[in-house]
């Protein structure tokens, strides 16, 4: 297997990462941390090799390795852990939800809170905690919880702390671990998604905005943890429409589900094998069309700290990267410049296609290449001291996904950069 990406930099965080989100139109990364903080980073602009001579020395990680990752804003947004983050479709609003039972909508550029929603209690009347957020459309916000509730909020109505969801569904018996919108059909007049796939416990379900839960799969006898939609695959009349949902499991198996055939999985890909079952697949993202080898690939975050690249069609792992030696990968995404962002433990890593890096560095000294990933800049503030109690809240939940490995000594090297002001 060949490495398709090169690590540009490693960004230390003040406490464990629980959520990450990428802005839809700008090179901006938001992170939600175990201590309740939400922080927004602006990544350096991507400059191609043909622009290197004209580019400012501090604008491109690719050309110089000395660009900065700037903290746009940072705040202690939630009293407990920040469990989940989501941008609105236009990127103007960043939604966050924490174990304090509150959803907050803030300006993505300033971090200023503009509205709040109080989570409904669970069926027993106790406070519920969020597991996922997703802005389905400009009108609808989806909120999943630990009690297996799926709340729908109408964003056209002003949100207050006494807000009541417009709909509530319970597609699973266990907490909702992933949510993937299904693209609108060719007959859609709005062009907006109205159906989505969720995973929870050992089942997959499809819910419709107007009709509620449509179908629930058979028991898969394996915990389902993450999911992503992949279209444009080869179609086979009567067998495949070329549209599938890929689901990562707790035993290292990636299952493929044919759109419209939701009772059971269609194919299986072993991403991480082992006698007793492989490591958990905790995060998954579809590789953009203009990144990689031109095929349809997905990137999977594994509980052992590796990142696996899987080619669909051949249905096999074609590449492997290392995010961390101990902590699992819980966040994956691609920014607007095609860079891959991985998150897990208390670090974020930024990756660039290896081919592009080699082109950008052509003709430079080897020593210059070696230091290109080592000079970065720091996140603002120092809050590592207040992470303890909040981290304890979710320790049980993290262990379910096998995110905690043996208590081995972490290597502080691996290209990790010292960030100014971070203690």
Automatic annotation (TrEMBL):
Biased composition range(s): Basic residues: 397-408
Matches recorded under Pfam families: WD40
Domain of life: Eukaryota
Species, as recorded: Diplocarpon rosae
Official protein name in the record: WD repeat-containing protein JIP5
Acidic residues composition bias: residue spans: 358-371
Family: Belongs to the WD repeat WDR55 family.
Gene3D superfamilies listed in its UniProt record: YVTN repeat-like/Quinoprotein amine dehydrogenase
Compositionally biased region (Low complexity): 381-390
The UniProt record lists the keyword Phosphoprotein: no
